[in-house]
Structures are given as C-alpha cells and as structure tokens.
Amino acid sequence: MVKFLKPNKAVIVLQGRYAGRKAVIIRSFDEGTRDRPYGHCLVAGIAKYPKKVIRKDSAKKTAKKSRVKAFVKLVNYSHIMPTRYTLDVDLKDVVTLDTLQSRDKKVTAAKEVKARLEDRFKTGKNRWFFTKLRF
Amino acid sequence: MVAAKKTKKTHESINNRLALVVKSGKYTLGYKTVLRTLRTSKAKLIIISNNCPPLRKSEIEYYAMLAKVGVHHFNGNNVDLGTACGKYYRVSCLGIIDPGDSDIIKTLPGEQ
C-alpha cells in the first residue's frame, strides 16, 4: 500500500523504440491528463549506454567510451517495469512538460540530461543504472 | 520448508473468507487489474493461484514487494480460485481492495 512510482525511481521501459532501456521517473501523473486519460509518467532514460571502460584505456579513449545518449519521453505506467533502485539526479528543472512540445526543446533537454548523466557515470555511482540490461 | 501440511480446515476458511470479501467487499480479478491496483496502491492483499506462470507470479510478487502488500499463494489452481470467488471462469490472480466484513487481511499475511 505504498506508492512506488515516484520521482527518482529507476524503471525499465518495456515497449516502444526504447524497450529494454533504463530510465528514471521525473514526474508522474497518476490520474492522467485530458490528452492521456491513463496513469503515465515523464521519464528520462539512456538511449545509448556508455561502453565498458578498462584500466588500460587512455584518457581520450575513456572520454569517448563514457558518452551517453539520453532520451526524454512520456510513457504509460503499463509500459514500464519499476525496480527497487533509485537515481538521485536533479532533472526537474531541465525536463518539464513543455519541453516535449517542440522538437528542438526536446533536443536541448536531452542534451542537458546527457551531460548530467555523464557526470554521474564518471563518478562511478549508480553502476547498475549505467549497465546495459542483457536479454 | 513447509512445517505442517496445509490442513483442509485452513483451506476451507480461506475460501469462506474469500466468499465474504466477494459478497461485501471490493476486489479485482485478473493480471492487468491486479497490476493497476498495485501501482495505485489500492490493493491490500494479492492472491495468486498455484498454476500461475512463474514469470507472471514473480512479476506480481515484485510489484507487491515494492508496494509492501502481502501476497498469498492460493492452495489450488485458477479453476479452484475462480470457484472460490463464485465465478464460472478461471481466475489466476486477484487483488483485494476493500475486505468489507472479512478479516482476511488480518489473518492471512501472518500465516505465510
């Protein structure tokens, strides 16, 4: 009886182009809206995972391998699988509802998400979130 | 490890309690609605039949773990669970939203 689809929850997208990718809930709409009369949430996830960095990589190679491609999307609750993990990255100011109105706003938001996720990956925390789900 | 065989008496009492929930409380039948009630944190208890596919069973248990809701594995298959609810169809999983007059929520999660 505890609500668990809350902001900062790590989820796995199950359907669509980003199926199998990990994402984090930024904002949830439990009751739905006029356009989407079902429970859905705004997620930011990883479109392209960073590659495995090994010790003998040079600095240039490490920088190239740590790149992340991000996406921002509104998904139905039934198309995500919640996990027990959370990701504490402050993306509320970057990703809002109106960033999904136009293509270039979405692109700039995704670029900012990419920068924040890359910083988090380089610190070495939340290792589970940045590993590709094998299936 | 099962300490004692699940006696017929407790199984009957679960059926009685389920019948009381169906008569006086709120419940949903079926996988999709069970997940929906778990997501909106309306479910108080989930009952899964014993022939529910293991992947689906694990998924419901995981959602229930996140929502901190008890799961009871019914001692019977989906045909029996449907009969216990008084329905003429098979029920693989059901979620109890409001137990009504029944004490199924208080007695069941303690048993397992």
UniProtKB/TrEMBL annotation, chain A:
PROSITE patterns: RIBOSOMAL_L27E. InterPro entries: Ribosomal_eL27 (IPR001141), Ribosomal_eL27_CS (IPR018262), Ribosomal_eL27_KOW (IPR041991), Ribosomal_eL27_sf (IPR038655), Translation_prot_SH3-like_sf (IPR008991). One of its GO terms (cellular component) is cytosolic large ribosomal subunit. One of its GO terms (molecular function) is structural constituent of ribosome. GO terms for biological process: translation. It comes from the Eukaryota. It holds the Pfam family Ribosomal_L27e. Keywords: Ribonucleoprotein, Ribosomal protein. SUPFAM superfamilies: Translation proteins SH3-like domain. CDD domains: KOW_RPL27. PANTHER family: 60S RIBOSOMAL PROTEIN L27. Belongs to the eukaryotic ribosomal protein eL27 family. This is 60S ribosomal protein L27. It comes from Nelumbo nucifera (Sacred lotus).
TrEMBL record, chain B:
Gene3D superfamilies: 3.30.1330.30. Residues 13-105 form the Ribosomal protein eL8/eL30/eS12/Gadd45 domain. GO terms for cellular component: cytosolic large ribosomal subunit. The keyword Isomerase does not apply. SUPFAM superfamilies: L30e-like. One of its GO terms (molecular function) is RNA binding. Keywords: Ribonucleoprotein, Ribosomal protein. Belongs to the eukaryotic ribosomal protein eL30 family. This is Ribosomal protein eL8/eL30/eS12/Gadd45 domain-containing protein. It comes from Nelumbo nucifera (Sacred lotus).
